[in-house]
User: What shape does this take?
Amino acid sequence: MRLTLTPDMVLQAYRLGVFPMAEDRDSKALFWCDPVLRGILPLDGLHLSRSLRRRLRTAPYRVSLNEDFAGVLAGCAARPSTWINAEITTLFTALHRQGHAHAIEVWDGDDLIGGLYGLAIGGLFCGESMFSRHTDASKIALATLVTHLRACGFVLFDTQYLTDHLASLGGIEIPRATYRARLAHALTLKPDIHCRDLPTGHEVVQFNTHKS
Assistant: This one.
């Protein structure tokens, strides 16, 4: 008989360094992932291209936190190939209701044009997926979130795997043992993702242009 996962089980798995995925949206089962090389985005290593800096300063978009978690989750799953199945959707919706899962939304007027969602545990944020319907919308969401997390006292942004897209923004790979050590430290912390307002586009650029 297949074990039915609960939100508490998922949280405990992330604390141990593993995470669930599905083969595709129609899959009835999940499997656990524990990459030998773990993707992370150093919170002090965000790379902003010239065009992204310009868009952050000038694009008439609004960025929000947790205004439309369901919309972001659906946007991330709305692609030809996805690992976000019905069980992932149910679990992360429950985790959001419990205050553990969060979404960053990018708006053009009343239209949701991009965003990302993930899970916050202690000083760790696990970025799960992001989507974009306008140029750079997902990058704006990610840059805003990384800047916000650093300002709020988070120390580890887990991207799980490293893609070319994430590498262009400063993402790197670290060995599993190194990740586990950083995870252990992050779990001792208690930052609050709601302790500050989200940074403006100008603040994101300023904060990430002159880093020590």
In short: The beta strands are 19-22, 30-33, 37-40, 62-65, 101-108, 111-121, 124-132, 156-160, 172-175.
